[in-house]
Design brief:
Blueprint (H helix, E strand, L loop, with lengths): L9 E5 L4 H12 L3 E6 L2 H13 L3 E6 L5 H15 L4 E4 L14 H29 L2 E6 L12 H20 L5 E8 L13 H14 L4 H12 L8 E4 L7
Parallel strand pairs: 1-2, 1-4, 2-3, 4-5, 5-6, 6-7
Helix pairs in contact: 1-7, 3-4, 4-5
The structure holds NADP nicotinamide-adenine-dinucleotide phosphate (NAP).
The site of NADP nicotinamide-adenine-dinucleotide phosphate has 29 residues, from helix 1.
Length: 249
Amino acid sequence: MNTNNIEGKVVVITGASSGLGEETARHLSAKGASVALGARRTERIESLAKEINSKDGKAIAVTTDVTQRDQVKNLVDSAVDEFGRVDVMLNNAGLMPLSQIESLKIDEWDQMIDVNIKGVLYGIAAALPYMKEQKSGHFINISSVAGHKTFPGSTVYSATKSAVRVISEGLRQEVTPYNIRTTIISPGAVKTELLEHISDDDIQKTNKEYVGEVGLTPDAYARLVAFTISGPEEVDINEILFRPTAQEL
Ligand SMILES: NC(=O)c1ccc[n+]([C@@H]2O[C@H](COP(=O)([O-])OP(=O)(O)OC[C@H]3O[C@@H](n4cnc5c(N)ncnc54)[C@H](OP(=O)(O)O)[C@@H]3O)[C@@H](O)[C@H]2O)c1
């Protein structure tokens, strides 16, 4: 019997090769969801899919670069081919190469805009036609505490994560006729590979020390994703902003 509103659902997860996406795939599949895993590192998502399937879960791995709209469409189409529908689109892929504007790391700005904003839009574009047809669905888009606050070094990252919140709120209003839920999750510090891509040595060091000290483990996030899915369909949890209790910012 479906008691958790997760069992039997088909969940597409971008950025499933590490950190928050990887942990959430395991968590949701243990609660009975079928998961379609997307990321660029094929070997990582294939090995995760194998692990999940070996525990009687249901998972497929589809190599996906979220900056390529055809690849995101292929990820969602593959989920529907394999599992028959798409219930949740978890637009989780993202990166955070923090730096001061004056460092002019323009390639990193482009990358954040492409992955953190366009990647989310491509995920919406890929799943929305199916959800409209089904008259049900759920978008979960990942912002950040940095989508609420800006600090030196976070300017472009914060801009992209603010954009995710704006896009999600506009989407929420527009898709109400189709019975589609829209949730923003804005995490504080969680220990993942996110800081590895900071190319400014000083900023990376400071952040690693801080997150190493106060950061949560990814299961905190996975449980909150599950919470937003598991509630009754008529209740749309619009945003969850969470931090480690010890995080001041
Ligand atoms: N950890 C935190 O403290 C924290 C706080 C607030 C918000 N967030 C957000 O949480 C999300 C997950 O991050 P994380 O902390 O789990 O970091 P992570 O361990 O570095 O994971 C990032 C994921 O995004 C994927 N990704 C990056 N570029 C991609 C691309 N072009 N196409 C497809 N996938 C791509 C990576 O996969 P591949 O490299 O294999 O493609 C990886 O699976 C991000 O949106 C991040 O901004 C994290």
